[in-house]
Amino acid sequence: MKILVVVSEFPKLTETFAYRNVVEYERLGHEVRIFHIKRFRKSEMVHDFMRGLVSRAFTFGYVSGPAVGALALEAVTAPRRLGRLLADVIGAYRGDPARGLAVMAYIPKALALGRWCRRAGIDHIHAEFAGHPATAAMIAARVAGVRFSFSAHAHDIFVSQALLPEKAREAGFVRAISRYNIAFLQRLPGFPAGKLRLVHCGVTRDRLQSGGPQPPGQGPFRILYVGSLIQRKGVRHLIDALAALPADLDWQARIVGGGDLADDLATQARALGLDGRIGFEGPQPAEAVTRHLGTAHVVVVPSVIGERGRTEGIPVVCMEALAHSLPVIASAVSGIPELVEDKVTGLLVPPGDAAAIARALCTIAADWPAAAAMGARGRDRVAAEYVVEDNARQLVALMEETR
């Protein structure tokens, strides 16, 4: 089967879940290309496992020959289809004109993509994210005369629901990564609930081969955060929690990731007298993250609800940590409690509650056998539901069913 995967940006360090699926589709014998709506991100770090995907990713310029030509051809050969599309977009985004203008800007390249799909013999288009990628996939599928589907992850459904029911009705299926997302989408007026399929994100099976963390002993209790340094990740609350830890607890923390708040968070740590105990490691490739997981005792995922409802789905770092049998402390938001079940596979805290994070860290440090047992149960849950090889195979089967 020839599959086209549509994303907003490529490459993107924080979207390994999408690229892991592509690698797996190819391992299963399918031919895959990646279309990114925005221009290629030349300065972005590329994980080793996805270097081979770079040559198979492409886009069209917003006012390129293919885009302008496709718009002109559509206006001449399928004016009703183009008129319906423009009316749908104008109607759906009447209350959010900025987002609507963004859609209008990429309509020509989405039309060009549809013509490319037809020439290339694409069998199925799958969009990662229910926002712009799914809209572009829907437009391309209309032009190419093929089926499409899309994944619903997190803020792609929480921030704006414009066109969501319409896209779902045309899609062969809608993949939701959590039961939380399914419940959210089922409540949307006009959304076809029968199209929903639960298929988690996942980690590669080899991650389950880790021997598990060493118990705290000689040396400090090692705390790890991995993720973007942006508001909705809640890292400032983790730093406040670290400042509240008891003076007699020997600890060190590593913060792995980059983002707009990197300087502010480093300043916060210095102001609290923690700069000698917190290492800001910057963005790291997946292979380096694995090494950090191998030396940690606990992973903290202190997510909060961001602006306009932006928040997590189920962060892959939770899956990565539990695959290594590491105990996880995470905020009880969105679909996280489906994986990090309080006192079973980890500890849950209210979002933004630094004192609760500090108490949870003390609990892990004080009772390592109980913490290790949570990590082991978490590994079992990941093995049962969150392995990318299994979940990518499910996605391919759904694509084949809806061809």
Would you mind describing this structure in some detail?
This protein has 403 residues and is α/β, with parallel strands linked by helices. The protein folds into two domains: 216 residues, Rossmann fold (3-Layer(aba) Sandwich), CATH 3.40.50; 181 residues, Glycogen Phosphorylase B (Rossmann fold, 3-Layer(aba) Sandwich). The chain is 45% helix and 15% strand. The protein has 16 helices and 13 strands. It has a seven-stranded parallel beta sheet with strand order 3-2-1-4-5-6-7, sandwiched between helices. Strands 10-9-8-11-12-13 form a six-stranded parallel beta sheet, sandwiched between helices. Helix 1 links the parallel strand 1 and strand 2. Helix 3 runs antiparallel to helix 4 and helix 12 packs across helix 15. The protein is elongated. It starts with a strand and ends with a helix. The model has no long low-confidence stretch (mean pLDDT 95). This is Glycosyltransferase involved in cell wall bisynthesis. GO terms for molecular function: glycosyltransferase activity. Keywords: Transferase. Pfam families: Glycos_transf_1.
